[in-house]
């Protein structure tokens, strides 16, 4: 078959040819195809014109294939079976036998509060899978999800890029934390005492000394002493455990570190909502659906 002939050939004609070569009878082929006999005869005529060969000739016991038709029969059947498999619905995902690789973009906060708690269950349910954690760069999330560089991302709802699917995971509030024996955290401090403490802050963009807490204080005509800015929560937790510095921490993160003392802050700081983000291209993929469900189940438990 020439490239020109194939380009203009209706796939339905190839299906008809496959059945005709199997049945060698127009009437029986029409029954299998749920078409009328004249319709199948018309399609056979089109096949003959397209391929430049009579393909099937009248014989004493039905139609007899030409040499060209016999040569086509095996490759055509194999090609149609391959195509059928390619367009068939994806089968169910079996985590016990899966060898899937997943890539998740998350901050150290999301890694500690979402990913780390699900790891034991993930390894038990899907031991042949692998999980790669990559740095979460907000400006890159949409592009990475679109090109397949990541499967999922965890980010705050307010700053989530548009165009991605999302599912709310939880709402997080802030607490005041310091080392377990911090002398000035035996009880909830007053606003003045709070502002007099030496504070540390996480600044993901690097070097910032102001955050949501400072905005809340400014609304009341107050300000605090921020003496340390770090890019990650992991470093901040170590600093709090070894110094008299204090910090406003997400409650779930603080709860994972029993070496810290946690008290309610004297100023209300707006909570944030953490969401799971993914691209439409993987929304219906069975493996991806299973992973999202596993994450939600681990948080619910």
Automatic annotation (TrEMBL):
Gene3D superfamilies with a match to the protein in the record: Periplasmic binding protein-like II (3.40.190.10), Winged helix-like DNA-binding domain superfamily/Winged helix DNA-binding domain (1.10.10.10)
Q: Which residues form the HTH lysR-type domain?
A: 9-66
| Domain of life according to the entry | Bacteria
Q: Which PROSITE patterns match?
A: HTH_LYSR
The protein's UniProt keywords, in alphabetical order, are: DNA-binding, Transcription, Transcription regulation
Q: TM segments?
A: none
Molecular function (GO) terms for this protein are:
DNA binding; DNA-binding transcription factor activity
Record's keyword annotation contains Protease: no
What family is reported?
Answer: Belongs to the LysR transcriptional regulatory family.
The record, for PANTHER family, names: HTH-TYPE TRANSCRIPTIONAL REGULATOR LEUO-RELATED, TRANSCRIPTIONAL REGULATORY PROTEIN
What protein name applies here? LysR family transcriptional regulator
Originating organism: Marilutibacter maris
């Amino acid at each position: 078959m020439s490239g020109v002939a194939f380009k203009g050939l209706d796939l339905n004609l190839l299906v008809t040819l496959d059945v005709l070569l199997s049945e060698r009878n127009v009437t029986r082929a029409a029954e299998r195809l749920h078409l009328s006999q004249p319709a199948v005869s018309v399609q056979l005529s089109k096949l003959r014109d397209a391929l430049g060969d009579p393909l099937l000739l009248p014989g004493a016991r039905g139609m007899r294939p030409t040499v060209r038709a016999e040569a086509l029969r095996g490759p055509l059947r194999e090609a149609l079976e391959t195509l059928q498999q390619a367009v068939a619905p994806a089968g169910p995902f079996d985590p016990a036998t899966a060898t899937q690789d997943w890539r998740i973009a998350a901050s150290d906060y999301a890694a500690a509060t979402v990913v780390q708690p699900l790891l034991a269950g993930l390894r038990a349910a899907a031991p042949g899978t692998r999980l790669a954690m990559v740095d979460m760069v907000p400006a890159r999330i949409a592009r990475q999800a679109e090109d397949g560089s990541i499967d999922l991302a965890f980010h705050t709802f307010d700053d989530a890029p548009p165009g991605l699917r999302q599912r709310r995971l939880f709402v997080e509030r802030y607490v005041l934390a310091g080392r377990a024996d911090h002398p000035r955290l035996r009880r909830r401090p007053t606003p003045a005492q709070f502002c007099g403490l030496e504070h540390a802050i996480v600044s993901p963009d690097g070097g910032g000394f102001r955050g949501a807490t400072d905005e809340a204080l400014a609304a009341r005509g107050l300000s605090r002493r921020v003496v340390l800015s770090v890019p990650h929560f992991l470093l901040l937790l170590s600093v709090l455990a070894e110094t008299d510095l204090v910090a406003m921490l997400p409650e779930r993160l603080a709860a994972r570190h029993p070496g810290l003392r946690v008290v309610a802050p004297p100023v209300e700081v707006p909570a944030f909502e953490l969401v799971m983000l993914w691209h439409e291209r993987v929304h219906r993929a069975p493996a991806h659906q299973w992973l999202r469900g596993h994450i939600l189940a681990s948080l619910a438990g």
